[in-house]
Amino acid sequence: MPRKENVKAAVVFLDVDGVKLSLSPENRLQEAAGLAAAVGLDVVFKEIVKLKAIKPATFIGQGVIDRLIVLIDDLKIDLIIFDTALSPIQQRNLEKKLQVKVIDRTALILEIFGERAQTKEGKLQVELAHLTYQRSRLVRSWTHLERQRGGAGFLGGPGETQIELDRRIIDEKILRIKQDLEKVKKTRLLHRNARKRVPYPVVALVGYTNAGKSTLFNKLSDSDVLAKDLLFATLDPTMRKVIYHREKK
User: Fold this and answer.
1) What percent of the chain is modeled with pLDDT above 70?
2) What superfamily would CATH give domain 4-163?
């Protein structure tokens, strides 16, 4: 597969009858396209596909598959992102029928997290999530997973280094990462207890991705942490000291 900035992607939101959504289908599609852009993909097509029922083997029906095959050929699409949770069997069957890389919403978000994580704990947590997800993808007749850039991405393709990952190897890695995370958590606990002994309040900014937390953080603390109009632009927590001057009446 080409470099990500040259990868042409199609984003498809699957609107299933009877499934309640927190956002409208249009907003979900726009958000999914934003996630794809956040990871550097060239989104050349996006569509809402309405489904009366889920097909166990492929999630979507043959009619939609046939239409996507034509679309893939016409627009030279390299990757299709289905904004839903695909089972391992569904993902494998779709890739066979469409003859392009297929990922779901979870894989896309994990790809972003893998690029954004900066701290040791953040990187360990992302790698743990990657491995847990990859383990669930080990299905019959699909015995290898593709890995690129020495990381745990999902956007690799033929021609890149392939590492045979069976359940035993993945489980060993998961165990090691969990042990490393426990050490990091103990260190963070020591730091948290130290902060409790300081007679100053600790304030946290929380909210949905791209809500403006980093922008507000920079304004309050006179900092320059990354702040962009981009989903999941910042991932790791950041702490700064703020000196508050109360105005005299």
Assistant:
1) 84
2) GTPase HflX, N-terminal domain (3.40.50.11060)
